[in-house]
Amino acid sequence: MSPDSTGPDGQPRNRRVAPAEYGAPLDLSFGAPQDAASSADGAGGAARPHRVLSRRERVLRGFLAAALLVGVGVGGWYALPVKTVTVEGNQRLPEARVLELAGLQPGFGWLYYGAWRARGLLDSPWVASATVTRVFPGTVRIRVTERVARVRLQQPDGSVLTVAGDGTPLPGALNTQTLPLVSGWGPARLGDVLQVLTALSRYNVQSVVFTPTGLTVKLPSGSVWSGDPQALLKYAGSISMYPNKDISIYPWGVSVQE
């Protein structure tokens, strides 16, 4: 022991030790030690402590984040409820039924209402299309386009079904007595019938009978038969030339029965 290491009373004297004598820098991080060179600060070169979260801390933070999101969502639900709903375009469906199909219960969150909820409108055969618009801060506007009853279709068992212009059955249709009655046998030809009725809409068609050989269209006075719907559409204008007559339309022309 050197003289400098003892005090006047002969007891050992404390001395300063250079940092180098401690060895490598002390790593305060949890988990695997980091490389000193990679953790050195660019300005002073000193190691920056890096704390790795434990599994318990990660779980706790995830739980808190989820709770925060839930809180924000719940707050948005109650802070911005649907307050006003307007319904347009409905004639057959009552407004209450439109709201039910659209999934709009009182107090539903305005922020969360969208197409996923309003898609129920298309579950009704009467709704051909629908447009839903949200208006800040709590208004929802619904505009529906309803299908229109076009014909009465007689079923093989004798029952009569009301059908729209696109072939969709419309249950519960009212005041359909004046619609053309479609009946017949053989392969179904509803598509051809609807196409012909559209072309002859100005002639007040009363009924259409289909068979495997063709279509017979009954007018207020006279009738039209054709074995080829396309030919009937082509020569439909000739019907007005022979009022009160029974005519037959072929791909090559028109025959009039006197």
Count the beta strands.
11
Largest sheet: 8 strands, mixed
Give the low-confidence spans. 16-45, 64-78
Rg from Cα: 42 Å
Number of helices: 5
Task: Determine the mean pLDDT.
Answer: 78
Word description of this protein:
With 258 residues, the protein is α/β, with parallel strands linked by helices. Helices cover 21% and strands 24% of the residues. It is built from five helices and eleven strands. It has an eight-stranded mixed β-sheet. Strands 1-3-2 form a three-stranded mixed β-sheet, with helices on one face. Residues 16-45 and 64-78 have low confidence and may be disordered. The N and C termini lie far apart (145 Å).
Write the layout of secondary structure elements.
Layout: H1 55-79, E1 84-88, H2 95-102, H3 115-118, E2 127-135, E3 139-146, E4 149-154, E5 160-164, E6 181-184, H4 190-199, E7 207-211, E8 214-218, E9 223-226, H5 229-234, E10 246-250, E11 253-257
Parallel strand pairs: 1-3, 4-6, 6-7, 9-10
Antiparallel strand pairs: 2-3, 4-5, 7-8, 8-9, 10-11
Record keyword descriptors for this entry.
258 residues; alpha/beta; 8-stranded mixed beta sheet; 24% strand
Could you write a compact summary of the structure shown?
The protein is of the alpha/beta class and 258 residues long.
